[in-house]
UniProtKB/TrEMBL annotation:
Organism: Quillaja saponaria
Matches recorded under Gene3D superfamilies: 1.10.220.160, 6.10.140.2220, SET domain, Tetratricopeptide repeat domain
Official protein name in the record: Histone-lysine N-methyltransferase ASHR1
Domain SET: start-end pairs: 11-248
Keyword Transferase: no
Top-level taxonomic group: Eukaryota
Listed PANTHER family: EG:BACR7C10.4 PROTEIN, HISTONE-LYSINE N-METHYLTRANSFERASE SMYD
Keyword Zinc-finger: yes
Length: 481
């Protein structure tokens, strides 16, 4: 701990323990938007490999993969990644190799993460792998497990997983109880490793990053550069302020956010957004994000339940929506959504798209224009249209999501920047250079703060913008001639 504090001191950071919150990371100097506060390599990590989708264990890329010839479980993109991982995989490979085919299938990413955790601990204690102030097992030991808050069913599941790990490792000295507690630690502390566009690639344990607490209105953001976790300031963080990131999707009413935090992270959030629960502003915001729309198509008022519980009243124009009418819509919507989710071997892409477009039309009549559900459906249609390379239609849906994104992802939020980026790319594909420049510039304004400017992803974005500018000036000059 002392070592860790002095390592953090050099970075203008310190850990303090606060009674109700536990450990907190505080800034001991000022940080400005875009500045890296802290970065860390994972203690252990695994790619989210499944039967269909595999990634290199070293770099998480998915091209040129070859299976490790020893265990036939782990993939590598080349000898460089294999070599850098060899100290640990040498042991893991032996363990995996002695399993029969069926048992090997039970080695899911979370089971592997646990196996790697124990192997790394062993190798560090034997000094095969060096330990440092920010890279040692005692940091893992210090993580919260919330074991007393976990329900019975989950505990049983952890115990089963613990048994499997014990069976695979065949180390008589490890205790099931400790293993189960470590699974609970993973659930509360492990991070999903994403690429620059926030698509999930794997899972990693970053015990120093895990000290950073949650806020629904965070002053920092966590992104990944390859496997390293990087925390950047998205606001000015004055000396003495606690550094905070968001653990969850922050778009959503206070109730939705609190539920997500309670379920996965087992705590009640008391951030500046959450303490407003029950106040007029918070009720209004919830009704906008998750409530119904006014009967008058031109009115954007929000609706609240009437005191006699017969329906919902627009708080702007006073129009009433009958409970039965809403119920009818909701039933119809549920039917459509169930149909869309049911896997059908004959449904093609086009049919799936028209199904979601139908859902979107229905949601537009039911929900407030800033509804999260409506935004998510549009997002779904957008993704499907992109896969079909229908750029024109995709752009329509992308633009429809922007006002909601700007409302729910305030300030420098990576999701907002990425949505601007999508609009820019689509305009570019359609040959609308001027519009492409407008959107790409907006994307750069946000993403250079959240992502920095040095990653391959950001270099691509900056190059796209540069290309668009060159093309625009070429178009202008050829018009002048
Ligand atoms: Zn690799
Ligand atoms: Zn192997
Ligand atoms: Zn909160
Ligand atoms: Zn109204």
């Amino acid at each position: 701990m002392e070592d860790l504090q002095s390592a953090l001191k050099e970075r203008n950071l310190t850990i303090s323990t606060i009674a109700e919150k536990g450990r907190c990371l505080f800034a001991t100097g000022d940080f400005y938007p875009g500045e890296v506060i802290i970065s860390q390599e994972p203690y252990v990590c695994v790619p989210n490999n499944s039967g269909f989708d595999s990634r290199c264990d070293g770099c998480f890329l998915s091209s040129n993969l070859k299976k490790c010839s020893g265990c036939q479980v782990v993939w590598y993109c080349g000898s460089e990644c294999q070599k850098s991982d060899w100290n640990l995989h040498r042991l893991e490979c032996k363990i995996l190799s002695r399993l029969d085919k069926d048992k090997r299938k039970s080695v899911t990413p979370s089971i592997r993460l646990m196996i790697k955790l124990y192997l790394r601990r062993k190798l560090q204690s034997e000094k095969v792998i060096p330990s440092t102030a920010t890279d040692n097992y005692s940091l893992v030991e210090a993580l919260v497990a919330h074991i007393s808050d976990i329900d019975e069913k989950q505990l049983v599941l952890y115990a089963q997983m613990a048994n499997l790990v014990k069976l695979i490792l065949q180390w008589p000295e490890i205790k099931i109880k400790e293993l189960a507690e470590n699974f609970s630690k993973f659930a509360c502390n492990a991070h999903t490793i994403c690429d620059g566009e926030l698509r999930p690639l794997g899972t990693g344990l970053y015990p120093v990053i895990s000290i950073i607490n949650h806020s629904c209105l965070p002053n920092s953001v966590l992104v990944f550069e390859g496997r390293s976790a990087v925390v950047r300031a998205v606001q000015h963080i004055a000396k003495g302020t606690e550094v905070m990131i968001s653990y969850i999707e922050t778009a959503g009413s206070t109730m939705t956010r609190q539920k997500a935090l309670k379920e996965q992270y087992l705590f009640t959030c008391t951030c500046p957004r959450c303490i407003k629960v029950g106040q007029y502003d918070d009720i209004r915001e919830s009704a906008i994000l998750e409530g119904y729309r006014c009967k008058d198509e031109k009115c954007d008022g929000f609706l609240l339940r009437t005191s006699d519980d017969k329906g919902f009243e627009c708080q702007q124009c006073g129009l009433l929506r009958d409970k039965e009418e809403i119920k009818k819509f909701a039933t119809e919507l549920k039917l459509l959504e169930d149909r869309a989710l049911r896997p059908s071997p004959i449904a093609n892409h086009q049919e799936t798209i028209s199904m979601y477009k139908m859902i979107e039309r229905l949601q537009r009549k039911l929900f407030h224009p800033f509804s999260i559900a409506l935004m998510q459906t549009r997002e779904k249609v957008l993704k499907l249209l992109m896969e079909l390379e229908d750029w024109r239609d995709a752009l329509v849906y992308c633009k429809l999501t922007i006002p909601v994104y700007e409302r729910v992802y305030l300030g420098f939020h990576p999701l907002l920047g990425l949505q601007y980026y999508s609009c820019g790319k689509l305009e570019w594909f359609l040959g609308e250079t001027g519009e492409a420049i407008k959107w790409l510039s907006k994307a750069v304004d946000v993403l250079r703060i959240t992502h920095g400017t040095n990653t391959p992803f950001m270099k691509d974005l900056l190059m796209n913008l540069e290309e668009a500018r060159v093309e625009a000036s070429y178009k202008r000059s050829s018009k002048d001639e």
